[in-house]
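cache lookup: miss for this entity combination. No prior model stored, computing from scratch. Input as submitted by user K.M.:
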Amino acid sequence: MKVVYLDNNATTRVDPEVFEAMLPLLTDQFGNPSSAHGFGALAGAALRNARRQLQALIGAEFDDEITFTSGGTESDNAAILSALQVMPDRTEIVTSAVEHPAVLTLCAHLEETRRVKVHRIPVDCQGRLNIDAYRAALNPNVAIVSIMWANNETGTIFPVAKLADLAKEVGALFHTDAVQAVGKLPMDLKSTAIDMLSLSSHKFHGPKGAGALFVKRAVRFHSLIKGGHQESDRRAGTENTPGIVGLGMAAELALKFMDDETPRIKWLRDRLENGLVQRVPNTFVNGDPLERLPNTASIGFERIEGHGILHLLDRKGIVCSSGSACTSGCAEPSHVLSAMKMPYGAVRFSFARDNDQEDVDRVLEVLPSIVEKLRDASTSEPDSRGAEDLHCVPGLSGRRTGHHS
Ligand SMILES: *Cc1c(COP(=O)(O)O)cnc(C)c1O
């Protein structure tokens, strides 16, 4: 059975061209870029090339603004911990309620162990940041703002350039976890006030265990990992040369394909959303209808949780992910859906350039009967959670749909 892979926000397939680019570094060109001999210098040249490929994708002004890391999680940790170190008199962090655990778990840890105050800015039922709460949280004691560019569960895009401008007004550093945005959205960092940005190779057809942190030249930075002088003293440890070369090639391909692939992927995503909404009654699409990643569909089905759907789809060879809105007692609680006050769980389908219309039509063929089966078996009454408790009632402010006759 051919697997229909629609979980590209979790990870993506390594592009064959990326694999080809990595192979020499795993075989003949195994040198250490820090070595004094010409053999090591070959690997060093490959790193410089990768840095320039990545610089082009994110629109950085200088290639030395890019430090290679082990991925998104390390970059997020490095950015936030560096800010607290370079601004020791500031003890507050502003972030959002819907960040990736790489940011939220670190913030909770800092709150417990270092008496750092953390402001978690709430979102509305479409996942949009509460700008008034954001402005209110900003004050001269904030060392760093860390707000993601796009959310991994709903695809909602935050206005990071504008948020960075506001952070500057109180002298705070601005970091963005752009792991879901890099390679999917055009970027020109040199024209923004964003100080630091995290990205991860395996979210855009590069290998796992490779990523980068962008740090604007004017920004002081303290290395998270102490050791040798690699990466201009910003990240110690012998460079993952195959991973970095793969990341560079993945960046080059993302840039090359972006103009043609973005509308095609969006068309597939919209075909799935519209098709489901037409075929399955009481279904709604989560996230900001306008400011949303082109590849992500988060779909809620009234009265049923996402994990049941996920497992039945998995048996039919369709791979996606799910989250539920409850905070206890259910299989996969999602802090994102909870922050959006979603009454039901959701299934996330995330597309990439190796998906096609056949994949979408396969989901449209099998999912309606799965939902019907689960709803028939479901013991929960319609609206059992009490819509009056919810700030967001699907059908009033969400984009829930009834049966189209
Ligand atoms: C995947 C992801 C990460 C973690 O990146 P890794 O390279 O897997 O450590 C961080 N933030 C977001 C938004 C992600 O989607």
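stored under new cache key. The chain is about 40% helix and 15% strand.
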